[in-house]
Amino acid sequence: MSERTKAPPRLDADRLLDDPRTRIIVCCGSGGVGKTTTAAALGLRAAERGRHVVVLTVDPARRLAQSMGLSSLDNTPRPVPLAEAGAAAGGTLHAMMLDMKRTFDEIVEAHAEPGRSEQILANPFYQSLSSSFAGTQEYMAMEKLGQLRRSERWDLIVVDTPPSRSALDFLDAPQRLSRFLDGRLLKLLTAPTRTGGRAYLKVVNAGFSVITGILTKVLGAQMLRDVQTFIAALDTMFGGFRERADDTYRLLQTPGTAFLVIATPEPDALREASYFVERLSEDRMPLAGLVLNRVHRSPATQLSAARSLAAAEALVPAGAAAENAYSAGGNGGAGALADVTRYPLAVAALRLHAERMQLIASERRLAQGFTAAHPGVPVARVIAQPEDVHDLAGLRVIGESLSAD
Ligand SMILES: Nc1ncnc2c1ncn2[C@@H]1O[C@H](COP(=O)(O)OP(=O)(O)OP(=O)(O)O)[C@@H](O)[C@H]1O
Ligand SMILES: [Mg+2]
């Protein structure tokens, strides 16, 4: 079959996890595709195969916290107990959830001039920026990743990325924050508090008094002073912000990093995955492969959808309403269907099977479309589980599925 010749290379998850050169795994993808689940499952599997792992999740839904037995939002890595067999391999697992405000505060405390940090932390403008600025969460994830990496406490860091509109937000966040801090309005606001002497200041100041007038009216004098204090303080730290963002960005480009793009076999998720793959290659970020999550399987693939439907039809006398026949799956419809066929359950099962086979075929077509566009990208499949994944046992099943593909 031609499908076989077009098959993508297989993503060997265990080889990736076992390779001591793999130091960072970043799970990215569009919203709800299974980034958090995959990151946690990979972290657990790597630890139970003997590595010292920390999983960094930025998911405020606390799913990872639940699955890892963490009771609260922790900004510091907490140990996760491993299964006996896994612990025997000598690895360890820590998990943490990113609290972006706390991380921001830590940076201020670590980098502001002595005596300055309290002033900044108490500043209303800072408080609002640190908890609500769009992209802060992504930026903080990068910042935390840099911190974890520098600590050298773990030999593998698995990073989950925030649920964002676009899978690209994670990579763009540091620049967006830089642009914001570099913005003209902020420049104008900081101008009077900068040490003078530069010629352009006169010009800026002329414009500034006008703007100050307007802003004082809008914000109030106290708020304006808050903004200015904050910006002035931030200004002294700004070089550090940018340097660290650049460092982390470069770290992501090194061969020790492996990006995994997660997608479900659905058009939107795969389109987003495609963008991400292209973007990673433009940015020279090392892509390990695509994780196709929530893929459906059938134990009876030898019975095609067409034959299954034909068989169902043969059991229903001509003229019987399809609606009736179909509702036989539920309890209420069995009576109605029993009037038109002697085999209501068989008909319902055959139709369900046909539906499942059609779904499998459509998922396969979508996956083939992705591979046709990106033939070299290795793929691993994770079977759709009958239920949500919220405990360690569930994560192990996902890890096994990932590796067994
Ligand atoms: N293979 C799977 N089988 C069954 N359920 C799954 C599977 N993968 C993930 N799920 C479930 O799907 C839901 C979304 O998964 P998850 O939270 O990992 O996605 P996400 O990409 O992190 O979402 P967000 O973008 O909101 O952070 C969860 O309820 C999870 O338990
Ligand atoms: Mg998530």
Describe the overall structure.
This protein is of the alpha/beta class and 405 residues long. The protein folds into 2 domains: 13-172 and 244-298 and 368-404, 3-Layer(aba) Sandwich (Rossmann fold); 305-363, no CATH class. It has 19 helices and 8 strands. An 8-stranded mixed beta sheet has the order 3-4-2-5-1-6-7-8, with helices on both faces. Helix 9 packs across helix 10. The protein is elongated, with a radius of gyration of 27 Å. 38% of the residues are buried. Bound molecules: adenosine-5'-triphosphate and magnesium ion.
The CATH topology of the largest domain is what?
Rossmann fold
The profile of the biggest β sheet is: 8 strands, mixed
- How many strands? 8
Tell me the span between the first and last alpha carbons: 20 Å
Fraction of residues in helices?
55-70%
CATH class of the largest domain: Alpha Beta
Give the class from helix and strand content and strand pairing.
alpha/beta
Identify the CATH architecture of the largest domain. Answer: 3-Layer(aba) Sandwich
Notable characteristics:
2 domains, binds adenosine-5'-triphosphate, 8-stranded mixed beta sheet, 11% strand, elongated, Rossmann fold, binds magnesium ion, 8 strands, single chain, alpha/beta, 405 residues, 57% helix, 19 helices
